[in-house]
């Protein structure tokens, strides 16, 4: 007897381009069958008539606690935004803020079809607790800023290491742990080398912001006489264990280095547009074989966690940038948001395939803006939005069914988030 059978839906496995009517069978958190029909029975049958059944999205770069700062400081360049607005408020964040901010982020992601994500944040134990409680899957890293201060670097590294020791593989394996050095402009080369050594020792990955702005490029050239990619490569930092967010200001040589080292890149088009950071050379990276996935970044620079919006923005941005409408076609963008994201996090998700994690969503197509259907990839990227997701399953557990969130008390999360935000803004009046 299986746990769940999803039947009558159109199945988009992401293994092939085809959309065929069929069933998905789930047992013990794993997909056990994807077929036209099944002989099996299950404890729970989900009728997906008129819907698309597909892998959940993988958001490969966010800062979940920043949901509490949604709309707090808009329309500034990154340096000013971080130094004058974000960091002063984050310094006053409490454990409860981080917990409820992450709960709010999980609620938003579950409701819009994201099943796993990569997060870098502070109060990371509370972030992990919220992920565990919500039922989502996540690769979590503690944000380390050392700024050339040896003592601070030691305590930052200790905090990240303690987190890794306490949380690696927790929540039935749904929590993956990583090191999170913030960026090459907030961490010295000596510190970055130490992080790499510890990551190798602990056999975990590293999540880092890289070459997000021209200002970073100039600072690095001034300080080191080379860009962030060259510095990180010289340190032996780059490898398939590295998840590099942004990578906007890359040269052709940098792309070649990323490809050669097997670095995973998280592209964040909405955040890059909002902070006017620039346009990442995504078509060039994809052409050269770099694994590029999609991330929303935090809610203070997006200002939501909707991966449908991220997909559409990515597709449109690179068409207009290249003046070529054939660039980043819908199918390729869908792959970035699912299979490429799963590859970046090293998880067996992102496709509907036997033996893979049962991280599955159901998208309701019985909507005016999704009618008629010629090409499902087109609709998912250009017409659909997060609110079209009716059901979200992570690790074989139903977190939302028929638009009803069953893994947490939605109203309670909203109320607590409002209270936390009010307290935060009050404390930030300095
Ligand atoms: C993890 C921390 O990083 C900060 N942050 C949030 N968004 C960005 C960004 O786009 N670039 C660099 N740093 C960022 C914020 O303090 C987070 O808490
Ligand atoms: Zn970020």
Automatic annotation (TrEMBL):
Protein name (Swiss-Prot/TrEMBL): 5'-deoxyadenosine deaminase
SUPFAM superfamilies xref list: Composite domain of metallo-dependent hydrolases, Metallo-dependent hydrolases
Keyword Transmembrane: no
Keyword hit for Metal-binding: yes
Native organism taxonomy: Archaea, Methanobacteriati, Methanobacteriota, Stenosarchaea group, Methanomicrobia
Known function: Catalyzes the deamination of three SAM-derived enzymatic products, namely 5'-deoxyadenosine, S-adenosyl-L-homocysteine, and 5'-methylthioadenosine, to produce the inosine analogs. Can also deaminate adenosine. The preferred substrate for this enzyme is 5'-deoxyadenosine, but all these substrates are efficiently deaminated. Likely functions in a S-adenosyl-L-methionine (SAM) recycling pathway from S-adenosyl-L-homocysteine (SAH) produced from SAM-dependent methylation reactions.
Pathway(s) per entry: Amino-acid biosynthesis; S-adenosyl-L-methionine biosynthesis
One Gene Ontology molecular-function label: S-adenosylhomocysteine deaminase activity
Gene Ontology biological process terms from the UniProt entry: S-adenosylmethionine biosynthetic process
Segments forming domain Amidohydrolase-related: 52-398
Reactions it catalyzes: S-methyl-5'-thioadenosine + H2O + H(+) = S-methyl-5'-thioinosine + NH4(+); S-adenosyl-L-homocysteine + H2O + H(+) = S-inosyl-L-homocysteine + NH4(+); 5'-deoxyadenosine + H2O + H(+) = 5'-deoxyinosine + NH4(+); adenosine + H2O + H(+) = inosine + NH4(+)
Source species, domain of life: Archaea
PANTHER family: AMIDOHYDROLASE-RELATED DOMAIN-CONTAINING PROTEIN, AMINOHYDROLASE SSNA-RELATED
């Amino acid at each position: 007897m299986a746990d769940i059978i999803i039947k009558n839906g159109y199945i988009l496995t992401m293994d092939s381009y085809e959309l065929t009517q069929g069933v998905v069978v789930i047992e013990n958190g794993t997909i056990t069958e994807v077929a036209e029909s099944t002989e099996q029975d299950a404890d729970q049958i989900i009728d997906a008539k008129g819907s698309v059944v597909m892998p959940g999205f993988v958001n490969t770069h966010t800062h979940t606690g920043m949901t509490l700062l949604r709309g707090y400081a808009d329309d500034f360049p990154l340096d000013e935004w971080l130094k004058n607005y974000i960091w002063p408020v984050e310094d006053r964040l409490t454990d409860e803020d981080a917990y409820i901010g992450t709960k709010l982020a999980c609620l938003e992601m579950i409701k819009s079809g994201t099943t796993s994500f990569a997060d870098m944040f502070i109060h990371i134990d509370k972030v992990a607790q919220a992920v565990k409680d919500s039922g989502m899957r996540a690769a979590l890293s503690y944000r380390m800023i050392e700024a050339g201060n040896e003592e601070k670097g030691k305590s930052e590294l200790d905090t990240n290491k303690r987190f890794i020791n306490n949380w690696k593989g927790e929540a039935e394996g749904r929590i993956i742990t990583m090191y999170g050095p913030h960026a090459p402009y907030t961490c010295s080369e000596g510190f970055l080398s130490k992080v790499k050594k510890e990551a190798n020792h602990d056999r975990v990955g590293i999540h880092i912001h890289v070459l997000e702005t021209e200002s970073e490029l100039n600072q690095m050239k001034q300080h080191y006489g080379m860009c962030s990619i060259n510095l990180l490569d010289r340190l032996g930092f780059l490898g398939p264990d590295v998840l590099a967010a942004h990578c906007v200001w890359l040269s052709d040589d940098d792309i070649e280095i990323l490809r050669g080292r097997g670095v995973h890149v998280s592209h964040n088009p909405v955040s890059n547009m909002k902070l006017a950071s620039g346009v990442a050379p995504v078509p060039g990276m994809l052409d050269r074989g770099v694994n590029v996935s999609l991330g929303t970044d935090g809610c203070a620079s997006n200002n939501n966690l909707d991966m449908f919006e991220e997909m559409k923005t990515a597709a449109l941005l690179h068409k207009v940038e290249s003046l070529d409408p054939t660039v980043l076609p819908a199918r390729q963008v869908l792959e970035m948001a699912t299979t490429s994201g799963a590859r970046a996090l090293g998880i067996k998700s992102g496709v509907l395939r036997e033996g893979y994690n049962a991280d599955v969503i159901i998208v309701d197509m019985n909507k005016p803006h999704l009618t008629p259907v010629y090409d499902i990839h087109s609709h998912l990227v250009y017409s659909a939005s997060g609110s079209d997701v009716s059901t979200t399953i992570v690790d074989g557990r139903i977190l939302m069914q028929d638009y009803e969130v069953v893994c947490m008390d939605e109203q309670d999360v909203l109320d607590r988030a409002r209270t936390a935000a009010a307290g935060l803004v009050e404390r930030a009046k300095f």
